[in-house]
Amino acid sequence: MEPSDRHVLLIDLTQEVFESLSPIFQREGFDLHSVESSAFVLDLIRGTPFELLVLGYPMKGLEIGELIEAAREPGSMCLSTGILMAVSENDLDEVMPWLDHGVNRIVTMQWPRAHIWQAVGDLLEIAPRVHIDAPIQLSLPSDVARDVVLLRTENISKSGALLTGFRTFPHGTRFDFTLVLPDAGPPITGSAEVVRRTSSEREGMDGFGMRYLVLGMGDEARLDGFIASRLSIKASEISPW
Known about the structure:
The chain is an alpha/beta fold. Helices cover 29% and strands 29% of the residues. α2 (39-47) packs parallel to α3 (64-72). It starts with 6 loop residues before the first strand and ends with a helix.
């Protein structure tokens, strides 16, 4: 079998975690590289374009901050690589402060496998995104917000959107939404959940990412068509022909 050009680095994973996560990577044709944390790993991360870094906890030879700093420093080949932590439920509270501060997702092996694989899939799937500034109305649970919240989109994709405004919400918050796209007919409606918060220092904006859970009848096809048309316009603008 030809070696893959898609690589995932697994750092300090227990055998149980490795056996739980490896099937999804192997099914998608990724090459897996399992190592123990050390100074060598920092150089490996800086110089190798991994598509995902998966960290066990506790780490044996490095601090979490050291690894994140190596991945995100200018010139690193993993500057935009997703970072996922796989921890035990007992360690969840201890590592949660790293979520959205270098770590993109945190999972525990006690969660349903579908939940874990969704988190992995969110970081590996790079859905085409288009920049669009459009109003989006959120209806949140009463314990999160009493009234509907109006925000703006920074970009949208077939799987979710990046929102900006004066409000952010906890990771995992679920809500209903109404999205008004320009020249696209009736609003897109559905439900979604918060999957990440932006880093104002690294991304230059305050906001959060949402992943669609359910879209209204016919809205998925209309959203796909809108994105495809915008991507086509963008391609024609840069085409020399």
